[in-house]
Amino acid sequence: MENNQQSPKAYFRMLGIIHLGLVLGVFLFGIVVTFFIADFQHPDTKSELANLFIYLVPGLVMAGIIANNVMFKVKLNALKEISELNARIKGYSGPLIIRYMLLEFPALFALVAVFLTNTMTYLVYAGLMIVLLGIKRPTLKSAITELELDQQEIAFLENPDSVID
């Protein structure tokens, strides 16, 4: 059986790397679509697909933002009920990944809409979602705030010698 112990600093560094990978993946895909694939000189505004995207892209962006907030709070409230700090900290990654997925999917969808219709407007939606995704970076400070930790738990997490099981 493998012993998976790490310091809180290493744990949040790992979460930060996952977050950075997700943000950079969407950002780089956006750059590829914008500069190498899309032809903004000839936008498709008349096809049925283009007409569908006019409503679908903003709707998905709004749904992603709302679902992100609702699902994250629901999962976070369930975590707050757990009394053991290690279990709460280890469980914190689940709601974060759900949060990132709900912000990343609309961004990717908007970039696919740019690819298919050559319409620059959808880049704004993708950019908004990338910014929101970037703002939601996991840090020890945000975990302390979101999990509503007390002073003893904060001291444990800030101690460089402490270990999360």
Structural summary, described in words:
- The chain has 165 residues and is mainly α.
- The protein has one domain.
- It is elongated.
- The protein starts with 7 loop residues before the first helix and ends in a 7-residue tail after the last helix.
Key terms:
mainly alpha, elongated, 165 residues
List the helices and strands and how they pair.
Blueprint: H1 8-37, H2 48-80, H3 85-91, H4 93-117, H5 121-135, H6 140-147, H7 151-158
Give the ordered list of helices and strands: HHHHHHH
Give the overall shape. elongated
Radius of gyration: 19 Å
Mean pLDDT: 90
Range of helix content: over 70%
Structural category: mainly alpha
Assembly type of the chains comes to single chain
Main sheet record: none
Terminal Cα separation, in Å? 13 Å
Number of domains: 1
Extract low-pLDDT stretches.
none
**What is the strand tally?**
0
Number of helices, where a helix is a run of at least 4 consecutive DSSP H or I residues = 7
Strand content: under 5%
Brief write-up:
This protein has helices at residues 8-37, 48-80, 85-91, 93-117, 121-135, 140-147, 151-158. It has 7 helices and no strands.
